[in-house]
Automatic annotation (TrEMBL):
EC annotation from Swiss-Prot or TrEMBL: 2.7.13.3
Origin: domain of life: Bacteria
Name recorded for this polypeptide: histidine kinase
Stored SMART domains: HATPase_c, HisKA, REC
Organism, as annotated: Acetobacter cerevisiae
Amino acid sequence: MTIRSDNILLVGLEPERREAFSALLNQRGFQVRSALNGRQAFEGFEDHLPDLLVVPAALPDMSAAQLCQRLRLNVVTRGIPVLVVVETQNPEQERLILEQGADACLSSQTEPAFLMFRICTLLREQEEDPLSRPGGTFRQPCVAIVTAPGGLLWSWRGEGRDTPPVLSDLLRRNGASVVLIDDPDDFNLTNWPVGKDQPDCLVVDLECPLFDGLAFAHTVVAMRRRTRQCMRVLGMVDGGQLSGQMASMAFTAGVDDLVDVDIAPDLLVARIGSLVRRKMVQDETRREEAHIESARARMALADALRRVNADLAAANRKLIEAQAKLVQSAKMASLGELAAGIAHEFNNPLAFVLAHENTVNRSIARALNAVREGDSLTAEQALAKSSERLAASLVGLSRMRDLVVSLRRFSRLEEGEFSRLDVPDAISMVLTLLAPKLGQNIRVICALDAPPDLFCQAALVNQVVMNIVSNAADAIMEKQREQEEVGLPAGEEDRIEITSTLEPATTHAGQDYVIRISDTGPGVPQDLQERVFEPFFTTKPVGSGTGLGLATAYGVVQAHDGSIVVTDARENGGACFTLRVPYRAEEERRTHAA
């Protein structure tokens, strides 16, 4: 018999009996502790829980029944098995003790081998891992009787009758459902009928001539481990067979309790009830432990999910910051490309103003001298010439002022905010900045039929429209250079057309504000029309583009819950970019702003 080390607590035993039990248990490798009474035992539970309690029928401060009741009322201790030791074996006393909550009741005169058998079977239950039943609701206990005609259980208390076992009626009267198994070869938990409770306890006829009861018990133990069930097995043997050898064979086979055929009916039912109750208490305890572990796992998962969400939020913030920097970078790249043309626009009126400064000064000096000399005609002519030169200088200064205002409006940092935007005025500003690049060879045609006001970000025009128009100008000029290189005559006047309309929405209820920008350039090949919005992708020669303009434009339009696509221009033969953003009415704007 293989013995494992477990912690056994002896409670309230007399000194001589405590020493005898300690010696017997220590000899077989158990760790033994003792407590003088029940109160001391419960106080010790705070530091260390025992695996088994051995108590007398009457402790100094309470009865064994009261101790069992207190154990079963506590979730932490109700799974601890209790073995009650009595002076002499009395079936009626044993039945009462088992019904009061004990797991086993043995006489102090019991053979040591059988005593160790019962202790080991109670401790072996701790190793089982039953499959938790859902819910934890009350159900009727189920007992299977494994016997056949001619066996001990079949004729037990039936005076040799060939009718089914009398034990069936006894168990049913005590509230249990009963299953009769007369062919152990057909017993299989895997194929157990759906909706029918599996047995909590199997009462096996170990002396049946039609099958090997010990071999069947061994098969049941292997089956319950494989299916993660926790059935208890009680074996019945012929009178006088409760020997040390039989106890050892039964323990090896997995039997949890042994009785002989002469056992009283009430005591047999009590022994079966004790096994069933023990099994159900352990099922409930382990089910609660599984629930606790599940709750801990869910808490750990929730913590991990919160950490992941925090990481995602941080990554999203970094992405938004990177996108803002990307937009600003693309804007600055656009301004860099415009710098040369704008500088030229500044130089022309500035040089004109500076050239006329001396002329105006000389004319004013002539006028002052003429006034002193009384020559009113000469003074009038000099002042008229000064006025003409000042008027010409004012035109140049106004042009410079318009460029400065446009640059300041374009470089505003609050472009991420939604506000009312005058689309025609914003497009006019963009065209003012792009005028040096467009030159005299590209004509811009605007047909803005949509309402002027649009609730959007300023970047929708400042960044998106400017990038598209600038790219269109680059494409047209590249086409013109290629035509000049091969000596082809210039065709029709190159142009860029900008239109705005209100159209029925395709992805939501309401209307879309649609801006189309088409050109007479070479267009975008169909296999590249989806790639032009990828970051750092460009069709321009190396060193001529960053690949950020259209990628930034795509992000800005997405922020408006809109779309941007490029197709072939129907009439011009170039490219056509179509921007769609939801159009909000005045009431919706106020709601969105609030």
